[in-house]
Design goal:
heterodimer, A: alpha+beta, six-stranded mixed beta sheet, B: 430 residues, seven-stranded mixed beta sheet, five-stranded mixed beta sheet, 15 helices
Amino acid sequence: MKFIQEQYQRGVICNCGLADHFKTEYLSVDFVLPLTEENATGMSLLAGVLSQGCKKYPGIDQISRYLARYYGASFSLTASKAGEMELLSLSFTYLDNKFAIDGEDIQGAILELLYEMLFHPWIENDAFLTEHVRQEKINLSDKIKGLFNDKRVYSLERCKELMCAQEAFGVHETGSIETLEKFDEKRLYQFFQKMMSEAYVVISYVGKGEALFLKDLAEKFCARSGEMPSTDTQVFTVKTKEIIEEMDLNQSKLNLGFRLNEASLKDGAASRLFNVMYGGSATSKLFLNVRERLSLCYYCSSVLDRFKNVMFVSSGVEADKYEEARSEIEFQLKALAKGDFSDEEFDNAKSYLIDSICGFKDSQPSLASMMISGALRNDMKSPEQEIEEIRKVDRQAIIEIAKGAKLDTVYLLKGVHNEQ
Amino acid sequence: MIQRNTYECQIIGEKYEKLIHPSGLTIYYMSMPEKAKKAAMIATKFGSINYCFETLDGRQVSVPNGTAHFLEHKLFEGEAGNAFDFYGKTGAKANAYTSNDKTAYYFVCSDQFEENLDVLLSFVTHPFLTNENVEKEKGIIAQEIRMYEDEPSWQGYFTMVEGLYQNHPIRRDIAGTVEDIYSLTPEILMDCYNTFYHPENLVLAVAGDLSLESVLEAVDRYFKVGESRSKIITPIDEPDEAGIHYTEKSMLVSRPIFHLGFKDNHTDVSGFELAKKEMEVEILLEYLFGKSSPFFNELYKDGLINHEFDCWYDLSDYFSFCVISGESDDPEAVEKHAFKCIEELYEKGVDEGRFKEIRNGLFGSLVIETDRAYSMVNRLVGNHLNGANTLDSIEALQQITVDDLLERAKEMFSNDCSCMSVINPQKEGK
């Protein structure tokens, strides 16, 4: 495979992953803004309003029918956060032209839809349609109110919010109901225009050919004057916070937030290996001990946010097993910090990560996501380079990262049964 | 001797092979040159609905809910350690799942396929059950059950199934209750193992850039010829009508979550006809309720549904039903509207233009599936257990006519055979 990164305009980055073996192609445009309540809410609301259609294809049904016609092409428009950045991502997956039974140009059709959606939105008098904005505000508000429906995700997000209450990272990617109230059809259109002219743009394509159309697409956007948004990684834990909230649930949800050190920030490969060994796989310390040895839970895993340089452990436990589970989770981190792990555990973690990265070759969304992350941290690597870096990590690097991990916040969503 | 057949789909130029090993094991092999990922899945026709059998020594056995799922967890343990320790050496991603009608074990890897296949087959063919390790698993599975008890969409779905069916074993919970699993012993699990993990009840599918010879060598090592098997009994005595038409529960949710199910009683279809039926239902669901439908767009504009809305088809050779599901403050209005659209379909007939678009769309998604090793092994295994051939779907899609759709709709969507389940927001303090 061949990977190319070009910047045809300042702040408009084009990623390209080319190979001949795909049956499908993937094309996405990501807009990147600093994570604030305003941007998170605005981008989340835009995801809904832009999905309602554009001037040429007005309506959810119009877009769906267009995509079906071009052999089940799929489209997704979502707002999400990465570290202290908020992203609005528009992406398409579609069949290679060779499968078009009637010889249609599928890629051309998808490009046209992408242009129409971004450059000719469905507006009237310099505003989005009142009806659309009203409807999508209700939908977004319902979505925000419904975040607690999934207790596992909700408790993890709540832990992030409590841990980073004073930092941008504490803002939820869907924004907030208070900020949503401030948006109307005019203000949202102004926000859209601002995003179109100021937000960093990352265009990603995974497919075949020379992708000459990317240059044209990039040149549709004007050059950006500002800088790529950055994430504050210099916040340090003084004292561990413990917060317990109650809900009428059968299972309690335990979440621990850790801040990682400079060593983790500098060596992404080591940081990922550390996470795999601690709680990121079925051979990890947390899986083997909290689940398999002590039978305390069904799931106990860790995830990393490499932009923010933090790590979160989540588990579902009985309320009366909270102390035992927490102390085991902390104990296993100390074990890593003392170097109490075998060469086999260390090698297994490397095999786990390397196998995943090799598999990216088959998955355009995974390749695109790897390229986008690379573009956001201005450190683009090919899968081969990533694998090379993983191979080079030594045991001591894991120990240093484990030593430097500071438990910042413990959040327990405690299951209680209220009197009926 | 090994029986061997090739199945091919001319339209997209894909093929796979089906083999019957002398032990009785069915094997599917799909070569995917140039793909980095390789996948293997082995499955048994043993899900939550299969709970009765007669052992070789003539005992009639009926096992508690959650048994198939419990055994799935236990087959990750062997005398020499946990399967994950072995997969760990190669970096393969391994997992398993239990559904109503099957238990499936699989891995996906980029390298060392043969080593991983050896781990998969070795663990599935060598149960290691002790009082101690069965007890240990109870704590873990109890927490899995607890987790599902708090998941509103799973509870809504299952409540709908319980309403739709009156006696059918699909009403049996996959994971069981905490009490169910605490009653399990190594003896019950071994009885199940001996019955359901007989090679004739198993199917293995492999896909990726790999050689069939190495797969057959591994199968020879683990599957022997001529073992006798006990008798599986799946008693099904189900009236056509749904048990109840409306059912509700309260949980901690922000808005009501609904699941509207349509039970189909025509489950005696197999082979090409089954593939065609599945495609017909998929087309109908998109036509009636999908994002391209007037139903979705009108209800969305009225704020009665949002993007959480979904519709799908669940089928096996034991059951067949459709589900439409979403969040709404007025599930009753959604239900009324759904029936109105079905009536309109009978009155106005099928719009040719939309039918063709939807067929194109489905064709594309089937082609995309043939590009992914995991999707293919999962489909090959699932279709085999239901009595269908995977690539038939693409051929079948081209043969479907407007009349076929109308006939299918009449079988599928009947007032008598529907059930609406609603999870209502729980009031404060309750």
